[in-house]
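Data deposition worksheet. Section B asks for the primary sequence of the deposited chain exactly as it was used as input, without tags or linkers unless they were present during the calculation. Section C holds the resulting structure in token form. Section D is free text for depositor observations; keep each observation to a single sentence. Incomplete worksheets are returned to the depositor.
Section A, Depositor: J.P.
Section B:
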Amino acid sequence: MSQFEKVGLSLIIENLKEGIVLIDKNLKVVFINYEAQSILGYSEKQIKKISIESLFDKEIYNEIISIYNKPRTKLINDIEIKDIFENSTFLSIYINPIIDYTQKNEHVDYILIQLSDLEGISLLSKKSKLDDEEKIMSQLFHGLAHEIKNPLSGIKGAAQLINQIKSNNKEINDCCSIIEKEASRLSNLVDTFKLLQPSDETDYEIVDINEVITSSISVCLKGLNKKDIRVGFDSITDSSKVYGFKELLKIVYMNIIKNACEAIDIKGSIQIKVKHLKDYKINNKNLIVTEISDDGLGINKESIDNLFKPFFSTKKKGQGIGLFLSQKIVNKIGGFIEAESSENKTCFKIYLPDASE
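Section C:
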């Protein structure tokens, strides 16, 4: 193997978004890449001083031992691993024997352990799916907005002309007013859908997300009436800049914070936390994630799965546009929104491209 090939192979292994640990027949770590060090919370120097039994739990350790006796690949799926700081990560772990076929009997000199971070894989999978949906939806609404807007203008204009004609027939006048009002409502709805039209990345602004959130909280708290709601905002003190459109992001945050306020009956709290997510890149950009949690009524599993669909709403008088529009705005600038809910807690996570690099 040439020097170039050795260097190239080393670079590839070190940049894999999958942890790689190689151990020998004496259960000593002979190689560990950067991703595995990050997952396990130990440096290479520290790991080489501790035993495999201390590094992994009993289940994984027993599987490693069994492979030396009976060489075959094993998969342990969705297992919780705690690092040195007791932080939990859910992984899929492949344990692969490296077999020396030059000998008559199968002989295992090394075992390769692959650690796949399920959260990261899920994150990238969701984004890919939303990108595909975004392309279709953008084309659909771009076409519909154009086709609907023109006849609506004609309908509204005709209703206004009829209404200007003096008539003693109250029913005709009332019908014209309804037509005019509903035509205006639909026209405003179409204008809203125009926000989903595709845009070039060169049009993006650099937006201070802390500023957008602070402004959105202020507006939403003014309409609480008699509710007693405490809002906690844990902002990031370093760079809080994202790529996007300031006015559109205000729509997103106001929609979600307003929904959180409405989910609380009389008294409760909303917690907003912003943090950098640097383990995974989307379109070569790191992410800033905003978590908006409330201790309101919660959302059932069926509704969670449908939250971002157009015209779906959990409210009696809801139109089902707010969250759908919010998701599509965030998709448009290269991010996405996800939601989860338990009995007394609902959390929305807004992922946006980080502009701090």
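Section D:
The mean pLDDT is 77.
The first helix runs from residue 3 to 14.
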